[in-house]
Write a structure and sequence with these properties.
By secondary structure, the chain is mainly β. The chain has helices at residues 2-15, 180-186, and strands at residues 62-66, 69-74, 111-116, 121-127, 134-136, 141-142, 165-167, 173-175, 191-195, 200-202, 220-223, 232-236, 247-250, 254-255. The relative contact order is 0.18. Mean pLDDT is 87; it is low at 1-17 and 19-36. Bound molecules: zinc ion (2 copies).
């Protein structure tokens, strides 16, 4: 009976796996997967004209400036352990208690985000779509609070590894919630990533360890930060919906 239930649950989680605009042609087998080992992440040196937040991005992310646009390139894969690397991979670890592993494995695939270098609050907010809505500092795409057909993540949450990530059908690994690997490594107030509108995403705490106050419907607010002493709009990851952000406060760039 237990096995039967487990099969049904796995099938349900698989069916509900979220969609993404990544095409199969963009996916390639990760030839380095079997030799990958965890390494201490190195960060990108700031380059002239690039906003300060990008100095926090790890070297796995290529950051360049194209006019008034910041171009971020990664291979989408996490730099930490997960059951989704598959048994035999150096970064494989067994599922944590209670986890219902979905049927997909991590597949390296190129991800390019083009975001405004000087983000501005738009006159109206816009709903975030399914698929990548931003990039974490380790190159993993950030997704919103929905599964396919914009259903709640109720069942998908069961398939998250202990860092709150999982792959979708094409093997693209992503976070819908706080990337616990990054906040554990860098602190709960550190930069987590950036959304497509160019606004930064910070951890669940402010630098004084307080919880963010006055978050709007997009999960953001404006005040001075270490990266923007004059004050800037930014998102925070939260333990409740929308977890990262359900809407863009600025004008979204593009995903390629
Ligand atoms: Zn997902
Ligand atoms: Zn804040």
């Amino acid at each position: 009976m237990r096995t039967h239930f487990s099969l049904i649950l796995t099938a349900t989680v698989g069916l509900l796996a979220c969609s993404s605009p990544v095409t199969p042609a963009a996916a390639t087998a990760d030839s380095s997967a079997t030799t990958a080992t965890p390494t201490t992440p190195t960060t990108n040196p700031p380059s002239s004209g690039t906003p300060a937040i990008y100095s926090h991005f790890q070297s796995a992310v290529s950051v360049s400036l194209d006019g008034s646009t910041v171009v971020l390139r990664s291979n989408s894969v996490p730099d930490h352990k997960s059951p989704y690397w598959g048994a035999g991979n150096a970064l494989y670890e067994a599922p944590q208690s209670g986890m219902s592993v979905n049927p997909f494995l991590i597949v390296s695939q190129s991800l390019t985000l083009r975001v405004p270098a000087s983000p501005a609050v738009a006159s109206t907010t816009s709903d975030t779509p399914l698929g990548p809505i931003g990039m974490a500092v380790n190159g993993v795409p950030l997704f919103n609070q929905y599964a396919a057909q914009r259903q709640p993540l109720t069942f998908e949450i069961l398939s998250f590894d202990r860092y709150n990530g999982h792959p979708q059908q094409a093997g693209q690994y992503h976070y819908h919630m706080e990337p616990a690997w990054l906040t554990g490594l860098n602190g709960t107030s550190a930069l987590v990533g950036v959304l497509l509108d160019g606004f930064p995403v910070y951890g669940p705490r402010e630098v004084d360890n307080s919880l963010p106050t006055g978050l709007d419907s997009c999960n953001g607010h404006t005040h001075a930060t270490a990266d923007a002493p004059a004050g800037q709009y930014h998102y925070h990851v939260t333990s409740a919906v929308p977890y990262i952000s359900g809407c863009y406060k600025g004008s979204a760039g593009s995903v390629g």
